Amino acid sequence: MPDLISTHKIAIVGGKSAQLAVELGVATSELEVCDLALFLVSANDGIVSADLERWRLARELYIPSLVIICDLGASEIDFEDMTAIASKMLDPVVTPYLVLHSDEGAPAALIHLENLEVIDYSGETRVLRPADPEHIELVAQFRAEYLEDIEDAGEDSFAAGLLFPALPWIEGTRIGLDQIIEFLNQVPIIS
């Protein structure tokens, strides 16, 4: 797949937007002229009213949007809880990945709900492997809901600005960055 992220006009809304732009290696644009929007939702601070207004504008303009859940390493609230909050405050979101934690409780891996592949970030390099049976059982309900949501929405619903994936981003790590880029590259250049 070609790397489209460098040619898109991307708006990043919310706290830590400058940090995410640096980690993704992208310049940011104003929401009104962007091809894509990333909405940061902090597990510590939630969603501020100014960001809600920006969300509504993105919906009016049918801008493909990702909800990025951040501050997960420093919060008592986990990814699943924050996606539920985002679904109530914004629009219903879908979760293509869930966060897996190390024995110490720190975010260490993601499990892809479509193919049940684990992306393990606990070592020096990212490792892809099949999910363990206990992980498959743990995510079964989430996976069923995700697959149903994707089937109902249609194949190009994210690129059309009608489906809103929520992805985790663990600052200072690669957890979530590759997945954000993967989604951004799904949207064709329109400007």
Question: How would you describe this protein?
Answer:
The chain has 191 residues and is an alpha/beta fold. 31% of the residues lie in helices and 20% in strands. It has helices spanning 17-24, 49-60, 79-89, 133-153, 177-184; strands spanning 10-13, 36-42, 65-70, 97-101, 107-112, 117-120, 127-130, 166-168. The strands form 2 sheets. A 4-stranded parallel beta sheet has the order 1-2-3-8, sandwiched between helices. The radius of gyration is 16 Å and the shape is globular.
Write a brief caption for the model.
Helices cover 31% and strands 20% of the residues. The chain is of the alpha/beta class and 191 residues long.
SSE map:
Elements: E1 10-13, H1 17-24, E2 36-42, H2 49-60, E3 65-70, H3 79-89, E4 97-101, E5 107-112, E6 117-120, E7 127-130, H4 133-153, E8 166-168, H5 177-184
Parallel strand pairs: 1-2, 2-3, 3-8
Antiparallel strand pairs: 4-5, 5-6, 6-7
Low-confidence stretches: none
Stated plainly, the CATH topology of the domain at 5-96 and 154-184 is called Rossmann fold
State the helical fraction. 25-40%
Order of helices and strands: EHEHEHEEEEHEH
The largest β sheet comes out as: 4 strands, parallel
Structural class: alpha/beta
End-to-end separation = 20 Å
Shape: globular
**CATH-wise, what's the superfamily of the domain at 5-96 and 154-184?**
P-loop containing nucleotide triphosphate hydrolases
Provide the CATH top-level class of the domain at 5-96 and 154-184: Alpha Beta
**Would you report the number of β strands?**
8
Q: How many helix segments?
A: 5
